[in-house]
Write a structure and sequence with these properties.
single chain; four-stranded antiparallel beta sheet; about 160 residues; mainly beta; 2 domains; Methylamine Dehydrogenase, Chain H
Length: about 160
């Protein structure tokens, strides 16, 4: 188990330098439960359910119950891809989680059903770099390693690719 030190400062002195002696200094350790040969690649937060989703380099996602207790797992790590998770993001309505992986796949998981995969698309045509949702939670936009801009409807698949 790895320990990470997180420091927070509540004030900055007149020179703009963080000064521990003149601020409320917070120091606490987070215990990460990743194996020594694994690491987290990306993170997203669900406000509605207060879940944190971490993308792991072994193709799994780790769901944690809240930011208040990051050690508390909501469920066991969910293996969904064969390669690293590149990016993941909750929909604006917090009901779905979109995940892209280095093995050129786009997954949609339903939060309310214990992160069940509701759709998987493997026509990304390159390693996905980043993704984002539209405001209606119906479409995901992404860029792949070939510089192509792709739009996916959750249930109908790719609707636009350039």
């Amino acid at each position: 188990m790895n320990n990470y030190k997180l420091e927070a400062f509540s004030s900055i002195n007149d020179k703009g330098i963080k000064d521990k002696s003149k601020s409320n200094y917070i120091n606490f350790a987070l215990n990460c439960e990743f194996a020594p040969n694994q690491s987290s690649q990306c993170i997203t937060f669900n406000k509605k359910y207060e879940h944190v989703a971490l993308g792991i380099d072994n193709g799994s996602i780790s769901i944690r119950k809240s930011l208040k207790n990051i050690k508390l797992k909501f469920m066991e790590d969910l293996k969904i891809a064969d390669q690293s998770i590149c990016s993941l993001k909750f929909s604006p309505n917090d009901d779905l989680l979109a995940v892209i992986s280095e093995d050129e796949k786009l997954f949609f998981l339903k939060v309310e059903d214990n992160y069940t995969v509701v759709q998987c698309y493997n026509d990304i045509c390159g390693i996905p770099i980043e993704l984002d949702w539209d405001t209606t939670s119906n479409y995901v936009q992404l860029i792949n390693s070939h510089g192509e801009y792709l739009i996916y409807n959750i249930y109908k698949g790719k609707i636009l690719g350039t």
